[in-house]
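User: Predict the structure for this protein chain, please.
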Amino acid sequence: MKYGAMNLPTKSVVEEIEELGKLGFDYIELTIDAPEATPEIILRDQDRITDTLAAHQLEIIGHLPTFISIADLYESIRKASIDENIKALEAGAALGIKKFVIHPGSIRGMGRQVKNRVHKYAHKSLATIVKKTNELQVTLCIENMFPGIHSLTEPYEFEKIFHKHPDLMFTLDIAHAHLGTNKNRSPDFIRHYAERLSHIHISDNFGKDDCHLPLGAGMIYFSRIFKELKDIGYDETITLEVFSRDRDYLSMSLSKIKRMWDSS
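Assistant: Here is the predicted structure, written as structure tokens:
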């Protein structure tokens, strides 16, 4: 098993690699987002980034831009969002990244009144991005979301997407699967998509907000989920999405997840 953490894209990528490397992670999940981790900045600082990764013996995977809209009702915004994803893929590939995470298109604003149309836009945009990942020979993992996004929250919602895109893989966000439900959806995702599961995000919450708490600070019972993962032989990557200002909590969560995994 490999454990990683995300950079904060408001800070220098190189500084974030140095800080996370000192905490003992196996890899960094590079969020390719403005203001300090855009594709342009990554390509500009490519040599420094790769040298710093090597100095800390850190591997790297990528997370495509979070705060854009590939399912927007405006064609110009969809196109710009697709273009930013493509640029992120190319910049990440230049760093040697072989696995990327993508958020599905969220449904917002007036899109909630015409969900079928927005779903079509999202699928068309995703197809363009998947085509690029195939050209670059990298793996793309689509992530489960939560009710407020109005898209790809439940396991059954992924069936058509995976049927249409045989090479598309899956990122299970355990915290997302805990939101808006009395029963964490993670075991159902694991059972349905064991062969697609290639990456995991993990943090804690109380079932209402995606607050990215340290492990043990919320109400998620991880032991059952870890048992399900072990039952399918999962041995890939797990990213701790603990966004506390004090990174002692991130370090504590790394120690905790290793103990919980070994004892589950």
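The radius of gyration is 18 Å.
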